[in-house]
Amino acid sequence: GAGVSQSPSNKVTEKGKDVELRCDPISGHTALYWYRQRLGQGLEFLIYFQGNSAPDKSGLPSDRFSAERTGESVSTLTIQRTQQEDSAVYLCASSLEWGQGTFGSGTRLTVV
Amino acid sequence: AQSVSQHNHHVILSEAASLELGCNYSYGGTVNLFWYVQYPGQHLQLLLKYFSGDPLVKGIKGFEAEFIKSKFSFNLRKPSVQWSDTAEYFCAVNDNYGQNFVFGPGTRLSVLP
Q1: Do A108 and B99 touch (CB under 8 A)?
Q2: Which one of A66, A69, A81, B106 is at 20 to 30 Å from B55 when CA atoms are compared?
Q3: What CA–CA distance (Å, rounded) separates B91 from B74?
Q4: How many CB atoms lie within 10 A of CB B68?
Q5: Residues of A in contact with B99 (CB under 8 A)
Q6: How far is B85 from chain A (nearest CA, A)?
């Protein structure tokens, strides 16, 4: 597709359940980022994939969060045992090695 | 639907030149406004944000932005750029409920030494 695609667009889950969020980057984009934005705050960096290099996981807030990416394709962000504080919009962005980042429309996660 | 436009795709300046990057948004309600910077090979970093109050916002690294509600604008400024400011700059907006987070397409800034 022409842009970064994220699914689902909205997810409501019960506290304690696991969720999986998906990001389809733009074809050919070697870099992929996950961010989240909680209500009233700016973006919070979570994880960064660049080609076949080891990902930068320094932004993951706890060991309940993990992400995978196979090569330069789809990425999934998994949150285990969700908590109410995990409620946020989760944004994915992909880019060529230098900038030209494009953002997806996000997944709104609500933990009830 | 909300949208954000940034006036320039690529700006090239010499060191010590003044910078102004344009950002306009379309949304009829109360908004929160952000400028982010992305250095090569790094993730986004928040430069500054506006939620309410003084429309002239000071950020990190000498950047500032002015919210002009009547013009739906939130332009980023810096009086004297440095080579290390070379990066991509993104304007973003969301509504006051934290929904509809929308990014502009970005402006690449190249500062020549």
Answers
A1: yes
A2: B106
A3: 8
A4: 11
A5: 89, 108
A6: 14
Task: Express as a percent the part of chain A with pLDDT over 70.
Answer: 93
Contact by Cβ (8 Å): A61, A79: no
Closest CA to B83 of B65, B109, B48: B109
Residue type, A89: V
Question: Rounded to whole angstroms, how far apart are CA atoms B105 and A101?
Answer: 8
| CA–CA gap between residue B9 and residue A101 (Å, rounded) | 12
pLDDT(A1) > 60: no
Chain B, residues 84-103, CB within 8 A of chain A, namely 87-88, 90, 92, 94, 97-99, 101, 103
Report the distance separating Cα A69 and Cα A48, nearest Å.
10
Please give the sequence-ordered ranges of beta strands (E in DSSP) within B1-113, or none if there are none.
3-6, 10-14, 19-21, 23-26, 31-38, 44-50, 56-58, 64-68, 73-78, 87-95, 102-103, 107-112
- pLDDT reported for residue B40: 79
Report pLDDT digits (tens) over B43-89: 788 899 898 899 999 999 999 999 999 999 999 999 999 999 999 99
Q: Write down the residue that tokens 């980042």 correspond to.
A: A101
